[in-house]
Amino acid sequence: MSNRKITLFEALIPIVFLILFLAINYQVFGDEASSGANQFGLILGAAIAIIIASIRRIPFREVMERVSQNIKETVPALLILLLVGSLAGTWLLSGIVPAMIYYGLQILNPSFFLVSAVLIAALVSTATGSSWTTSATIGIALIGIGNSLGINTAMTAGAVISGAYFGDKMSPMSDTTNLAAAMAGTDLITHIKYMMITTVPSIIITLIIFLIIGLSIQTDGAINHEVILAAIADRFTITPWLFIVPVVVLGLIIKKTPPLVALLSGVILGAIFAAIFQQDLILDLSNKLNGANATSISLKDMYHVSMQSISNDINITTGNPILDDKALFSSGGMTGMLSTIELIICAMIFGGSMQAMGALRKISKALLSMVRGNASLVGATVFSAFGMNVLASDQYLAIVVPGKMFSEAYKEKGLTPENLSRSLEDGGTVTSVLIPWNTCGAYQSKVLTVDVFDYLPYAFFNIISPFMSIAVAALGYKIKHLSKRINNSDKQ
After folding, report:
1. CA angle, corner 340, sides to 314 and 381, nearest 5?
2. DSSP 8-state class, residue 330
3. Taking a C-beta distance cutoff of 8 angstroms, is the pair 191, 177 a contact?
4. Burial class of 220 by CB neighbour count within 10 A (0 to 12, 13 to 18, 19+)
5. CA 106 to chain centre
6. C-alpha dist (Å) from residue 411 to 5, 377, 482, 489
7. Nearest to 203 by CA among 477, 463, 443, 455
8. Residues 406, 31, 127, CA angle at the centre, nearest 5°?
């Protein structure tokens, strides 16, 4: 692009300013920074990159073309985010998520409580694609049950977070899973399959550790969740038939149906099952929305409430303070995803500007000069993603910035993009919750009412995953190379 090569110092200037902006935003806004302030910080960082690009005589048109291309590449992920928000709304309204909580609470056993907490959180998170939703629903209930058993609250929180972030990594409905695949340039299913190589051993080790802890600690009291179960059953119609919807969605995904089609099917099925099983609930919500006092439900009421759950926020109260005070049964619908979409778009503006000015290539080459093998490259990616979680205080930036920065490095090393996408998740997605000032850490600490540094020693899955990623690379186990893919394509 430019006849004059950019220096490493110039390449780092926008990143330094971005980190400064984000640090100020965190000090001022706390965990609300990602609602708007961080987005503007990314735009300011992009503006600095554009200024440097103009000094290097890189045409503004070329910068905008790169930015436009970056945004275009993330459109599928943005559409998926909107559908994930809609899915959360209809699965709440239909009683699917409450049913998961209802049945999940009944399988707990004191001796295996921590293992059960990991598994239940993993199940809910995989089904919903959201670690935040998991913690704000089943997570709070598990914290309360653990307290009644005399189990250390931090241990319970660590188990919940371990399971929740397993699902956040592996669910095709997770925003970070889709984002990592998009940043690396691989397809979603390939990314998820490749993550199993590091994720499955990490969760197995986590379960073994919690099993040992659970069998060694003494618990007191009894699991007393009848009041919670009664409140859920009084508000929702709970039936195993509700699980048809998630089974169908997961089946579509397994059959390699495009994620947008699978998610849209889940949204529509959720609305249909709500109309079938939750008519009393819909009538009550319709009366509240319209300020009416109708005694029978109409098709208009069903449509109104369903569209409300799909597109906007919905809050279902049960009359139980344990459930209602934390707004367990609430969802933001598509509207709740808009701030995340804004953040991704602004991140693409920043990443595109950095790419157009040649900064990412310059930084990548500087890092590559210190890399001697696959393990060191994966290690550099993992710790860069972790570093962005620490410095940028945002999980998405920990995926986007290193993703753009290392993409060329992986190509030059002859590694397929799923190597990069897996490293981004192993280093970025799971470690975000371990940083108190990161949006994920701040959120989880607030929802679970446990300080980050208290639950950190027990978030075994989140601690193990980055090191497992590096260990697998060091062993050279199933590391995919571009040459092999090309050869296989030629044979076909």
Report:
1. 140
2. E
3. yes
4. exposed
5. 27
6. 21, 12, 8, 17
7. 463
8. 70
Residue with tokens 């999980």: 395
- Give per-residue pLDDT as tens, 368-413: 677 777 888 899 899 888 987 876 667 887 898 888 778 878 888 8
Q: For the stretch 463-483, what's the b/e string if a residue is b when 16 or more beta carbons lie within 10 angstroms of its beta carbon?
A: bbbbebbbbbbeeeeebbeee
311-333, pLDDT tens digit by residue?
A: 988 888 888 776 776 566 888 88
Q: How far apart are CA 180 and CA 167, in angstroms?
A: 15
- The whole-angstrom separation of Cα 133 and Cα 323 is 14
Residues in the chain: 492
Q: Are 172 and 190 in contact (CB under 8 A)?
A: no
Q: What Rg value do the Cα atoms of the chain yield, rounded?
A: 23
The β-bridge partners of 331 are 314
Token pair, residue 5, equals 């090569």
Using DSSP, state whether 293 is helix, strand or coil: coil
Instruction: Please name the residue that has the structure tokens 């710790």.
Output: 383
CA angle 486, 402, 468 (to 5 degrees): 75
Q: Which residue has the tokens 């900064």?
A: 359
> What does the DSSP 8-state code read for residue 319?
S
Closest CA to 208 of 109, 110, 115: 115
Does this model's pTM top 0.85? My answer is no
Q: List the beta bridge partners of residue 481.
A: 415
The residue behind tokens 């935003």 is 25
> CA 23 to CA 438: how far, in whole Å?
10
Q: Which residue's structure tokens are 């302030």?
A: 37
